[in-house]
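1st attempt posting a full record on here, be nice pls
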Amino acid sequence: MSFLRASYSVLLCALVLSVPAGASAGGFEFAAHGTRQLGRGGAWAARADDPLALYYNPAMLADLPDSQVLANVHVGFWDACVDRQGTYGSVIPGGTASDNIFDSEGGNPDAWLGDEMPSVCNSGYPQPIPWVLGSIRLLPELGIAFGITAPSGIGNATWGNTGEGRFGTVDTANGLRPSPVRYGLAQQDVLLAHPSIGVGWRPADFIRIGFTFQWGIANVRFMNFTSAGVLGAPEDPFGDIRTELHAFDWFVPAGILSVHVQPHPNFDIMVGGRISDAIGGATAAEGHLDLNTSYFSRDEQWQSTPNRIDGVTLRAGQPWQFQLAMRYADRIRPRSWERGFEAAVQNVVNDSMYSENFDIELDVVYELNSQVGDFVVRLPTGASVIAGGTAVPVPAVQPIPHGWGDVLGIRLGGDWNIIPGQIAARAGFHTEIPLAQSRYQIQDFINGYRFGLHVGATFRIERFDISIAYAHIFQLDTTITDGNFRAVSANSSEGMCAGGGGYDPNNPVVDAGCYPQGYGAVTNNGTYSAEYNVLSVGATYHFE
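the predicted structure (as tokens):
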């Protein structure tokens, strides 16, 4: 390896190590990794002419015209709300609630039960999503890339108020009220990063083959509320327990395989897919569970009591993805590998921005979200918490059903090189069509029909590229009327499977349609709405 490449490798390592772990995202993804890719609506897999080919289409690493270093960042804004219908009293039978912080001081203490349940919206901070990558052309027909990628999604969210004593609440015109969505989610912060290495090889002029290995690292913090099921009353805040899970998994492996063919100088076709192990699959996602019993109680005997249970594990499936991409390019020069010597002499970056007038690409993506079934939290045998001064046993296995539905995605986009090799403009459109609606939907993943409008541009100064992009993603409202997400409720047995018993991982809740003992009322019926705005900026340097 030359001195230049050695120096470049050191530079890349420094850049990779400088990425803050807290800048990664997790959870579901929107259409595009990378700045140029976002501007095309994610329709980039068949073009794949920068180091992000490592994620989209590693086979095309064989065709990168030079060694490159890339740093891109999205900033995602997620506007989302959940609106449950009815009054508080409609979900607390009997029209009374036990002594809690929402009760009035005078007159009827349960007057708040007559209030309509308010809409609750995400107030989490904008999510930065970084990618830092580099590529090296080892041989004319062999290239590699390496660096860190992050899921193109929103990993943090806050539903309701924050601060001790205020989690799980919302402010209304009538005063402080319990959040109607607290049993699904009150706050989350999911950080997922993928140190990755990929290789692409061109064994013949018409075909390329590539593979990327990703070493995932996951850090999960998830807060919701469970219930003690006091007197069998669902959603009575007196019995609420604030529950906060912390889990870390240092190894969540994934693999990406692609095959790329060029049946004509102006036409590209690729097929590929990505599969991932579960969080808590290859290695345990270990951590602890913090519980505050009687969180909203005003009863002197039942004061809020902090508890911690160590040795807790989490298993959460991750989606798989398969895609077909087709691209047409209006060429003004041969491909880089066909004329690499001439391009080197001219000292130009001989990529698609230089050698084409325009291109248009169509990608069809199948998101196998059904890999995400039950999240399963396991506690040490014999674990207990203190409530009202008494030790109360906690179930050793607690499934959190998700049952995400598969999604068909269509992405259409392209570039127009206004001044080839200097200025490029791009635009794109994408849509996501849900193939099934989960009865277990909560606000951590709001599934629904989406479509996005995307624009972007690149400016090249000698061998340095600056790219910008923007996308607005619309989503149709989803209304759940037959939900089956039930709050954990220690003294309840609603929705319990025939014969009772414990949890069977071979027959998860999302398949069986029923629960082990210890679950209460359905809490996820309502209308879910969302939209996204994404800004992105990126820089790429092409080495000679």
